[in-house]
Amino acid sequence: MSGFPLPWVRGTTAVMAALIALTCAAPPASAAPRAAGPLGASANRTVSALKATPRAYAQEAPAPTTTTNGSGSFFSSKGRVAALALMVVAGGFTLYSVHHDSQPVKSPIR
Which tens digit of pLDDT belongs to each residue from 47-97? Predict the structure, then answer.
């Protein structure tokens, strides 16, 4: 068996290398300011011609926050308790599976 084990690996590698090279070679999106085209110039003229209404200058009162500086318990909702219980059960099952796996691997490669 010479070369790559799969025929598509070389092409995929070449495409990925080209994409990475193009990504690194591209200039940042904010490298140079673009000049406003005819649509942009028209929009700027329209917006500058509009008069600001008193409502535009009015400030709204900030919405009251419902957080209490972290003094609430994580277990305040059933969803959070269920998520934590599921994580504990999954971790326990993983540990049990790792330590009680006594069957040898039967693979043609080994």
Answer: 888 877 777 677 777 777 665 555 567 778 888 889 999 999 999 999 888
Q: Indicate the residue type of 65.
A: T
Quick check: 73 and 80 in contact, CB under 8 A?
no
Q: Dihedral of the CA atoms 100, 101, 103, 109 (nearest 10)?
A: -160
Please tell me the total number of residues recorded for the chain in this structure.
110
Residue with tokens 């693979």: 107
Instruction: State how far the alpha carbon of 49 is from the alpha carbons of 35, 42, 55, 60, 85, in Å.
Output: 21, 11, 17, 25, 61
